[in-house]
Amino acid sequence: MMNMEFIRKLPIPQEIKKEFPISEEVRLMKAEKDKEIADIFTGKSDKFLLVIGPCSADREDAVMDYITRLARVQEKVKDKIFIIPRIYTNKPRTTGQGYKGMIHQPDPTKAEDMLEGIIAIRKLHTRAITETGLVCADEMLYPENHRYLSDLLSYVAIGARSVEDQQHRLTASGLSIPVGMKNPTGGDYSVMLNSIIAAQSQHTFLYRGWEVRSQGNPLAHAILRGYVDKRGVSHPNYHYEDLELLFNMYSEKGLENMAVIVDTNHCNSGKKYLEQIRICNEVLHSCRHSEDIRGFVKGFMIESYIEDGAQKVGGGVYGKSITDPCLGWEKSEQLIYQIADQL
Hints:
This protein is an alpha/beta fold. The protein has eleven helices and twelve strands.
């Protein structure tokens, strides 16, 4: 006997997409933006990627306010930087406790409702691209849920706790957008590189009750986010020597489109969100001192929101993270211009 309660059968992605469709204009715009992003990973474009936004998308009004601000900045730096807003609606939790994202709780102060959550995240992602013209990123916490947003997302991240999971790797191999594979919480580069090999390869596997065959995803790449040692102490892995080591290990594997995104928060900053500014500047300094690193580092992942820091669920501060601390808007805007000036 299974020790779980079956609450209700949820609509399949096709049904949700039919009920909440995107326009032909949005579809064409996304296709054009996806090509621009792919060109960055294949080396056809030398633009720098910024995957930037709140640690978790907790409320639609504040997230849309934030992304609208990003859209204005994007226009000013479009010759050098391509901005992909983070709309992270699925949140992994170290112990399984706490706010798991909008897909679980459209309102963080109310009970879980995953049907309402699926609808809420689709509406939010649709609003973002329709109203701002920016294509967005989300984390793939649940591989089977990706298809609820597959026509809207332009970037997907596989988290440090999921990167060793077979289903995440195989699902990534069937996507046509860039998928960032984070180093695991223990920091082992070989685990991350094995995930990229799996994601770039063809597979036959079980997905949503179907036998499917993937073609492999040549845009799968690495994300460095720091790591935790056996004593629970955080360590960074964004320094010159770390990037050089990963470049050499990557080269030996013969993988397509060698690329790394540096996550400036999490263990790289020790969750000291203000350190993200210094970390960006240090990585850019490394890029100036090595052609290999400059071509290898495709961008940053930055946790940023309207207000500095974090608060508890129900804290009441508009635009302030309810998960990890984030860099506030004024500092974030200034940092984007600083990055552009160094490219």
